[in-house]
Automatic annotation (TrEMBL):
PROSITE patterns: CB, TYR_RECOMBINASE. Signal peptide: none annotated. This is Site-specific recombinase XerC. Keywords: DNA integration, DNA recombination, DNA-binding. Belongs to the 'phage' integrase family.
Length: 457
């Protein structure tokens, strides 16, 4: 519950029985301004101090902005945003009224002096203000009163609270940049209130041009990221609803012969018997005999391969690490790679994490590039005109594992549990804690690498 004006001491302290405003100085400016700025209010009434403190705060913030050499619209909007945050948390009518009075007073100050006048229809004088200052004052008031919240205001908080992978967060940032660029191009105000269902649909239809002609699947990904951001906003009452809900970028159905597919056995033999590096040979075999994705394999540590079990980190919609029995044909690889290493050491140190601070790339990025180059080198490729990706790629090992497990008559629910797919049916999908270890081991061992046919065959 918000504090009433009679008990609200935010930004206030007493000195000799009188109230004054106090404001912390950012660390980078403390050498220039000290640790706090203070301004006396010359009143011993807390209620009065709360009504008049906002103007003093604005003046102190102006001092800070000047010291930072930041002036103009950016500083004014930051001030308005801070006032809007206080106003959104206020529940006491008196406190809201005091804030609104302070906002109006500040807007009048920003509007500046009258620069002229004209007559209205009745012949009365109408004051004229500097157009730029008048627009700035209006924008300040709308932002401060919560009627024009900048689209990007809460996005950093959203990203900080998100548990998504770096790549997904990069998609979040990219989708917001596309939206802001489109708003500027179409002269749509970049505020949360301006993004209605109709505006969201217009953006979706124009997104291909804004994003540089990417595929419908990629465009839908950006729309979905914006929808998730608006869901987050709605849960916190920053917006009333999610205008992106249910919007879908239309895509032509992919013909059957253009779907990404598993490797054939002949392609598997070419890959497994080719002149790959030792680490690539190990990587391919683990993928083929576990059905795991590239990123989780590259991220394995020694302790994740102990006791005959892989412990793969959560991927996609998985909520917890996933245990998979280690195939008997992989035992020698695991023993060799773990030898002489500590529990937290990487099993694949050949592909370290990106060194660049803030990089959105996963550890598997270079491993993926290396595999693509090797795959093409041994002639394993399936390119369809007009499609960017080959129909076979590292994920084809995962598809091959699932195919071979199905051909070996393994139960669909067990295969799904091993590879981390959502399982169908309530019994296994909701109430089962997971298949028995022996069932999972039988499923894994049922998959065998193809062998080169002998001369007699």
């Amino acid at each position: 519950m918000a504090r009433p004006a009679a008990a609200d001491t935010r930004y206030l302290e007493q000195k000799n029985g009188k109230w004054r405003v106090t404001l912390a100085v950012p660390r980078e400016l403390q050498g220039k301004l000290g640790t706090r700025l203070k301004r006396p209010l010359h009143t011993d009434s807390l209620a009065v101090a709360n009504r008049i403190k906002w103007q003093a705060l604005a003046e102190l913030r102006a001092v800070i902005e000047h010291a930072r050499n930041v002036t103009g619209k950016g500083a004014i909007i930051r001030e308005a945003i801070e006032l809007a945050a206080y106003r959104s948390r206020a529940r006491d009518p008196e406190e809201i009224a005091n804030l609104d009075d302070a906002i109006v007073d500040r807007a009048i100050e920003l509007q500046g002096p009258v620069v002229g006048s004209e007559e209205d229809v009745d012949g009365g004088p109408v004051p004229i203000f500097d157009p730029e200052k008048e627009r700035a004052a209006l924008e300040f008031a709308e932002v401060a009163q919560g009627r024009a919240t900048p689209i990007a205001l809460y996005h950093p908080d959203y990203l900080n609270q998100s548990i998504n992978k770096r790549r997904t967060k990069a998609d979040d940032e990219r989708s917001l940049r596309f939206l802001l660029a489109w708003c500027e191009r179409e002269r749509v105000r970049p505020t949360l209130q301006a993004i209605t269902r109709k505006v969201a649909a217009r953006f979706m239809d124009d997104l291909g041009g804004v994003a540089g002609g990417q595929s419908p699947v990629t465009l839908q990904k950006y729309v979905s990221r914006l929808s998730r951001f608006w869901q987050w906003l709605a849960k916190r009452d920053h917006v009333e609803s999610n205008p992106w809900a249910g919007l879908r970028v239309e895509a032509k159905p992919t013909p059957h012969d253009e779907l990404e597919r598993p490797f054939t056995d002949a392609e598997m033999l070419a890959l497994l018997n080719g002149a790959a590096s030792p680490e690539m040979h190990d990587l391919m075999r683990i993928a083929a005999l576990s059905g795991a994705r590239l990123d989780v394999i590259v991220d394995l540590r020694v302790k994740d391969c102990a006791g005959g079990m892989f412990v793969f980190k959560p991927q996609k919609k998985e909520t917890a690490p996933r245990q998979v029995p280690i195939h008997s044909e992989l035992a020698a690889i695991i023993k060799r790679r773990a030898k002489g290493k500590a529990a937290d050491d990487a099993m694949f140190p050949e592909w370290p994490a990106p060194r660049k601070v803030g990089s959105q790339r996963e550890r598997s990025f270079k491993a993926s590039n290396a595999f693509t180059a090797y795959r093409r080198q041994v002639g394993v490729d399936d390119v369809v005109p007009g499609k960017r990706r080959s129909l076979v790629n590292f994920h084809s090992f995962r598809r091959w594992f699932i195919t071979k497990a199905e051909q070996a008559d393994q139960a669909e629910g067990i295969i799904a549990a091993v590879v981390g797919h959502k399982r169908k049916g309530m019994t296994l999908g909701r109430y089962s804690a997971g298949p028995l270890l022996e069932q999972a081991r039988r499923c894994v061992e049922a998959v065998r690498l193809p062998r080169q046919p002998s001369a007699k065959e």
